[in-house]
Design a protein that fits this description.
Layout: H1 28-33, H2 40-44, H3 55-58, E1 69-72, E2 80-83, E3 86-87, H4 89-101, E4 105-110, E5 119-122, H5 123-140, E6 148-152, H6 158-169, E7 172-175, H7 182-192, E8 196-200, E9 202-205, E10 208-211, H8 213-225, E11 232-236, E12 254-256, H9 257-260, E13 274-275, E14 279-285, E15 293-298, H10 300-312, E16 321-324, H11 331-343, E17 347-351, H12 362-370, E18 374-377, H13 379-388, E19 402-406, H14 412-422, E20 428-432, E21 466-469, E22 475-476, E23 484-488, E24 498-499, H15 503-510, E25 528-536, E26 542-547, E27 551-554, E28 557-560, H16 561-568, E29 574-584, E30 588-597, H17 605-618, E31 628-631, H18 644-651, H19 666-676
This protein binds 5'-O-[(S)-butoxy(hydroxy)phosphoryl]adenosine.
């Protein structure tokens, strides 16, 4: 059998299928106040006007020097935007608002414990704290423009303060999701060659104060083994003036930020004028093979794009109170908690804990207390809130004008609950489809212009021109009723610049598939492969069906199956591991882990637990397998390839199809018995 014909389980194959839904129209009240109601934007952003159309987005920012060239394609597909222009991201998110709005809240920090007071940080205070932190990073930690820094911090006001302090200096930050393990953090320290790590002693999650500092010690030890020494660990205190972690400080390496800052009180740091194409940050994401990729985002293009998306798709006005419930450790938080909203001078909410702590009403009490009017979350959270408190939103006085869903397809049923109960039938919903790599949205309705369609991300946003190809590279037209690989024909300013330190991987993963002229300097030859399967309906709305690669979307975030499998292989007894996505009521998908043992070992619950623990240690709890199935053997093709499709069908109680061509068809029944008898 040719390699090509071996069908692996992909998210797309087991994606939920649902029929076309009716349109929902935004209320006149919403449209009357919307930032964007002019249909002409699609004309202005047509391919005929590319790339100059994007100047309109860049003009939302304050530049030290205007750009000479909108798009430079000379190093395609590493595209450079707004070349010749200079700006600073921290200046754009803070300083430029001071004259008129210094007394306005920039950040509302909501601690998880309800008895603790909400901290309201004004733009002036943000300015002061970012400047002092920038001085500390420069003068105490010795960081300079172009250095990389790893930030492994929980949801806190100190996290954006640290990010913006880096941005002020042109130091490239790499934020690692706080819930990721020490080992995942170490990999990112090594790959980005960070010699400074920022962390926090502790944070609250589900009512417990977790020791977070311990992960820093372990991460440094692991990174050192791989040749990267961290010479300074800077520890923020959850409660300033007091250590909330029992893990001791390492003499000469660890320093308490809150103490050190005293030496920098009153310090002011001139924002470094960065080239538009200088990197602003790295954000690691999972891919098909090997280690996570460091997606490198640039300063001018990224900031212009997220500012425009925040304004036109999120409909953020300076007077809005905007709450994005994502974690800043993911791209959603970077773009739509920190950079986009602050660049627009909004008030952004940062919540420390879980949305259902201590009960199902918590999120709605926060919305009520702060009078939040724009709410942004993911289907996984919506499903959880709906499950444990379907009537809860009725009990609280809040009114959203706008709501977002992001991260994975949302089931129409869940969408309707979100619309009717959370949005009280009044809020415009945008279902935004995009990725870590894309910086900002690719598809979404423009809330003041286009009606909503449950379960469908909507048309492409202005300036994004998708095209769906089949396996052979033929275009699948709208309304054909077939799914294919969705690509974007043109570059856009939010697009990542490269994979950190690995241009070849960047080209191979995202462009090689449909590029026929590898030497071309014409952007038309470089369609961007998103890695998602999608269908375009007659009306031009895109329905995203899920990943085409070996990536599982858990709670709206990509986990590489290969990463989970290699984590399992760390356990001595394990010979082979295969991960498949299985549908989960709240998380969307969960990994199911199939294991074959080395000869001489017996299956046991203890061993299954050990393997599950290994996955949590290597990657983090987010990757915890639903089940670890220790099977007598893996179903394999005659050429020895593990048939994940068969395992996926068993886990999802589906049809395994014809397995007679396998090398070992009998094992399929044995595995089925094992899973079904459970
Ligand atoms: C993948 C990207 C975008 C920030 C959060 C996740 C899936 C994302 C949607 C949506 C259907 C979606 C895609 C995409 N996805 N948003 N609205 N509808 N699917 O970022 O971890 O880089 O994952 O999430 O499969 O490729 P990420």
């Amino acid at each position: 059998m040719a390699e090509k014909n071996i069908v692996e389980t992909s998210e797309a194959q087991i994606a939920v299928h649902w029929g076309e839904e009716e349109f929902y129209h935004p209320t006149p009240e919403f449209v009357g106040q919307a930032n964007l109601t002019d249909n002409a934007i699609f004309e202005r952003f047509s391919l005929d006007n590319f790339p100059e159309c994007f100047n309109e987005y860049a003009e939302l920012l304050s530049w030290d020097k205007y750009w000479d060239q909108t798009l430079d394609t000379s190093d395609a597909p590493c595209f450079k935007w707004f070349v010749g222009g200079r700006l600073n991201a921290s200046y754009n998110c803070i300083d430029r608002h001071l004259e008129k709005n210094k007394n306005k809240t920039a950040i509302h920090f909501v601690p998880e414990l309800e008895e603790e007071r909400i901290d309201h940080i004004t733009y002036q205070e943000l300015y002061v704290r970012v400047n002092e932190m920038a001085a500390l990073l420069r003068d105490f930690a010795g960081l300079k423009t172009g250095d990389r820094v790893t930030i492994h911090m929980p949801m806190s006001a100190e996290l954006p303060i640290t990010m913006l302090a880096c941005a002020r200096l042109g130091v490239i930050h790499s934020v690692v999701f706080g819930g990721f393990s020490a080992s995942a953090c170490a990999d990112r320290i090594v790959d980005s060659q960070s010699r400074v790590l920022l962390t926090m002693d502790a944070y609250y999650r589900s009512g417990k104060l977790l020791n977070h500092k311990a992960a820093a010690d372990e991460a440094c030890a692991l990174a050192r083994k791989e040749g990267q020494t961290v010479d300074k660990v800077l520890v923020w205190q959850r409660y300033p003036g007091k250590m909330s972690s029992e893990t001791p400080l390492v003499e000469g390496r660890d320093f308490v930020v809150n103490d050190k800052l005293k030496e920098f009180y009153g310090a002011r740091v001139e924002p470094v004028s960065m080239k538009a194409e200088d990197p602003l940050f790295l954000m690691y994401t999972s891919g098909t093979t090997g280690k996570p990729k460091g997606c490198q985002h640039g300063t001018g293009g990224y900031l212009a794009y997220v500012t425009a998306m925040s304004k036109y798709v999120q409909d953020i006005h300076p007077e809005d109170v905007y709450w994005c419930m994502a974690d800043i450790g993911w791209i959603t938080g970077h773009s739509f908690i920190v950079y986009g909203p602050l660049s627009l001078c909004a008030s952004t909410v940062i919540y420390e804990g879980v949305p259902t702590y201590p009960d199902a009403g918590r999120s709605w009490r926060i919305a009520q207390a702060l009078d939040v009017n724009i709410f942004h979350t993911a289907p996984t959270a919506i499903r959880a809130l709906r499950k444990i408190g379907p009537e809860e939103p009725h009990k609280y006085q809040f009114k959203f004008k706008h709501m977002t869903t992001v991260g994975e397809p949302i089931e129409p049923e869940v969408w309707k609950w979100y619309f009717n109960v959370v949005g009280k039938g009044q809020a415009a919903i945008v279902d935004t489809w995009w990725q870590t790599e894309t910086g900002g949205f690719l598809c979404s309705t423009l809330p003041g212009i286009k009606p909503m369609k449950p379960g469908s991300a909507g048309p492409a946003v202005p300036g994004i021109h998708p095209i769906i190809y089949d396996e052979e590279g033929n275009e699948i037209k709208r309304g054909e009723g077939r799914a294919g690989n969705i690509c974007i024909q043109n570059p856009w300013p939010g697009q990542f610049q490269t994979v950190w330190g690995d241009r070849e991987r960047f080209v191979k993963t995202y462009f090689a598939r449909y590029n026929t002229k590898p030497d071309s300097k014409d952007w038309r030859d470089w369609p961007y492969l998103t890695g998602d399967a999608a269908m375009e309906a007659e009306d031009g709305y895109f329905r995203i069906l899920g990943r085409i690669d070996d990536v599982i979307n858990v709670s709206g975030h990509r986990l590489g199956t290969k990463e989970i499998e290699s984590a399992a292989l760390v356990v001595d007894e394990v010979a082979e591991a295969a991960v498949v996505p299985v549908a989960h009521e709240i998380k969307g998908k969960e990994p199911d882990l199939y294991i074959a043992l080395k000869p001489g070992f017996e299956a046991s619950n203890d061993l299954a637990q050990k393997i599950s623990d290994a996955v949590c240690t290597e990657i983090g709890k987010i990757a915890k397998p639903r089940r670890v199935w220790i099977v007598p053997d893996m179903p394999k093709t005659r050429s020895g390839k593990i048939m994940r499709r068969v395992l996926g069908a068993i886990s999802n109680k589906g049809d395994v199809g014809n397995v007679m061509t396998l090398a070992n068809p009998d094992v399929v029944d044995a595995i089925k018995d094992l899973v079904e008898s459970d």
